Amino acid sequence: MTHTDLTDTEIIKRILQGEQVLFAQLVQRYQQYVFTLVLRFTGNREDAEEVSQDVFVKAYRSLADFRGEAKFSTWLYTVVRTSCITFLRKKKLTIASMDNERTLAQLENRESGFNANIIEQKSRHAMVNAAIRLLSPDDGQLITLFYKGEQTLEEIGRIMGLDPNTVKVKLHRARHRLKEKMEKYFSYELEH
């Protein structure tokens, strides 16, 4: 069995038994997931790269706290969220609550207007990410966790403190709103 065939739980167990070099496997598996989530909170690539590194340092130091009750990615999400909140507070942004819709919208749009990014980024992936940033924070979080983080409805429910059925309904609505944003802001790109 190669290292890449090991499950997250098996890798974590071996790291805690002294094979620290295996942590690179977890980083490799989750670096895109972490970066995508962090970018959603910070709004710019430079900050996202810095915070992503910090997330993995904190995850490594706290690995013994992972109990395996949920997927590693679910546990890692809480490290991402905590690290982002800490980072944003250090940047002296006034954050009444990370769940405050207007505050998060301001954070996501403060770096540069997304219109400039649309002109620069023509790929479908970039358009979808731009459309996700136009959604409310809750909708964006649901879409990101379900499609990019590949979390189950139950795991998303645990992360967001919601019943899985509520998550299912909210996800359906979020998908509909994402489609509306895509059609409204990217209709030309979608046609060509």
Automatic annotation (TrEMBL):
Instruction: Quote the Pfam families the UniProt record gives.
Output: Sigma70_r2, Sigma70_r4_2
Keyword Transcription regulation appears in the UniProt entry: yes
Under SUPFAM superfamilies, the record lists: Sigma2 domain of RNA polymerase sigma factors (SSF88946), Sigma3 and sigma4 domains of RNA polymerase sigma factors (SSF88659)
- Per UniProt, residues of the RNA polymerase sigma factor 70 region 4 type domain are 128-178
Keywords of this entry: DNA-binding, Sigma factor, Transcription, Transcription regulation
Q: Please state every residue range assigned to the domain named RNA polymerase sigma-70 region.
A: 26-92
The entry lists its GO molecular-function terms as: DNA binding; sigma factor activity
One GO BP: DNA-templated transcription initiation
Similarity annotation: Belongs to the sigma-70 factor family. ECF subfamily.
| Protein name in UniProt | RNA polymerase sigma factor
What species is this protein from?
Puia dinghuensis
